[in-house]
Amino acid sequence: MPGGCTNSCEARLKPDLTVTKKSETWINPESPENRRYNVTCTVENIGIVDALPCVIRVSIDDGAWQDSPVVQLNASGRKNHTFGTFTMSGTSDEITVRVDPEGEIDEWDEGNNHLTNTWYAKPDLTVTAFDVPRAGNLTLFTDSTANATIVNIGTVSTKGAFDVTLCVNGEEVKDGTFRVIEELAPGDEIFRSFNWFVGASNEIKVVADSGGEIDEWDEGNNDANETRSLGGGEDPKDPINTDPKPFIRGNLPEGPDTEIDLDEVTPGGGVDYDMDELGGNDSTSGCVSKERVSAQLFRSTPFLSDVSDIVVSSSGLAVIGALSLLLLFYFGYRGELTAHRRNNR
């Protein structure tokens, strides 16, 4: 209906509450037996009409939960909420924040009302930068450098020393392990520079906590890899001619009795060059002294009319021509002799 509103349009005339910007913060992260934390989040109304007051709830996987009232939110309105204090059960908690948990508000989208994540109490070492010179800046069989930046992206300090190791092609390089004795708090980083010997092909790898001394949240993100190849090996070969009709050097016989069928000429078979007879100069016209050609010969001769492909050499053509002349001379002489005998009778 022109100028009207469909059911879908009417359905959008509703509020739509969602949870954004959820985060956790420690109160006492250095007390492993009694770690406590708070949860912070933002509630937004992304609908196009106002939302009535409701409740927002935080639930912890061990069964703990808290509710907080949400005031009336205008369209595009938002409100920050902080919950706590919670005590971590073990080394991690699964935390869910849900607005309007009882479904009291009639919303445009009922499926975007919650966020869930895992909050853990462990360090997590990872390599955030690994700088190795480009292959064009490397010199074969000389020393080069590699620089690594390691960051603790976990939620608590490392609380112990660990090693950072550089390997090339699966082998630890000489003096390739650095001992990190300083404690890395969450977000702290260290920088290490290594020397390594450049070969023709190099798979370069740096590993944080190479000895596995730190109990981390994610043990699979501790390394970074780079590959540098300086080429080497055999010189590049001449390009191969893939044209199905190969280049034919020299002058081929032409005329009505010789037909070159290039579709039947194949590399290595249809054209045969005898390099011993080329004279060593490929630029000389007619330098090929022997060629095999696919030809239709003497198609006007009845006994050759069924021959479709005869392969001959240029010297063979000369012999055939001489034999043809001898046969013509022989039949002509014999005819004259027969006519002379008849006239003398």
In short:
The chain is mostly beta strands. The protein has helices at 7-11, 314-344; strands spanning 17-26, 36-45, 54-60, 65-70, 78-87, 92-99, 114-120, 125-131, 143-152, 162-168, 171-180, 189-197, 201-208, 223-229, 293-295, 310-312.
Task: Give a verbal description of the structure.
This protein is mainly β and 345 residues long. Among the domains are: 7-120, Immunoglobulins (Immunoglobulin-like), CATH 2.60.40.10; 125-229, Immunoglobulins (Immunoglobulin-like, Sandwich). The protein has two helices and 16 strands. It has helices at residues 7-11, 314-344; strands spanning 17-26, 36-45, 54-60, 65-70, 78-87, 92-99, 114-120, 125-131, 143-152, 162-168, 171-180, 189-197, 201-208, 223-229, 293-295, 310-312. The strands form five sheets. Strands 4-3-6-7 form a four-stranded antiparallel beta sheet, with no helix packed on it. Strands 11-10-13-14 form a four-stranded antiparallel beta sheet, with no helix packed on it. A three-stranded antiparallel beta sheet has the order 1-2-5, with no helix packed on it. β3 and β4 (65-70) form a beta hairpin. The radius of gyration is 45 Å and the shape is elongated.
In which order are the strands of the major sheet placed?
4-3-6-7
Number of strands: 16
Parts with pLDDT < 50 across at least 5 consecutive residues:
233-313
| Residues in β-strands, percent | 35-45%
Under the CATH scheme, the architecture of the domain at 7-120 is Sandwich
Largest sheet: 4 strands, antiparallel
Shape: elongated
Q: Kindly provide the radius of gyration, computed on alpha-carbon positions and rounded to a whole number of angstroms.
A: 45 Å
N- to C-terminal distance: 122 Å
Helix content: 10-25%
| Mean pLDDT across residues | 78
Number of alpha- plus pi-helical segments: 2
